[in-house]
């Protein structure tokens, strides 16, 4: 598993060699996850660092 300077995972490889990638914002919150099929999920947060939105690969947006 690859990690950034803050120790957060940036990518991991499964036993089949497929990769999952993680992206973070400046506040170190997860903002995107790309899975083994190159499908990307995105995440949005409010000013209190609470997760408020998740956009899935099928473009379905879930607001929390």
Automatic annotation (TrEMBL):
**InterPro entries recorded:** RHS_repeat, YD
Please identify the protein, giving its name as recorded.
YD repeat-containing protein
Bilayer-crossing residues are none
Question: Record's Gene3D superfamilies?
Answer: RHS repeat-associated core
What is the scientific name of the source organism? Pseudomonas amygdali pv. tabaci
Q: Which Pfam family, an example, fits this chain?
A: RHS_repeat
């Amino acid at each position: 598993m690859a990690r950034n300077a803050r120790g957060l995972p940036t990518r991991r490889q499964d036993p089949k060699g497929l990769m999952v990638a993680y992206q973070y914002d400046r506040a170190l919150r997860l903002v995107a996850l790309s899975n083994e099929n190159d499908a990307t999920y995105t995440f949005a947060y409010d000013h209190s660092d609470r997760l408020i939105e998740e956009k899935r690969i099928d473009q379905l947006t879930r607001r929390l």
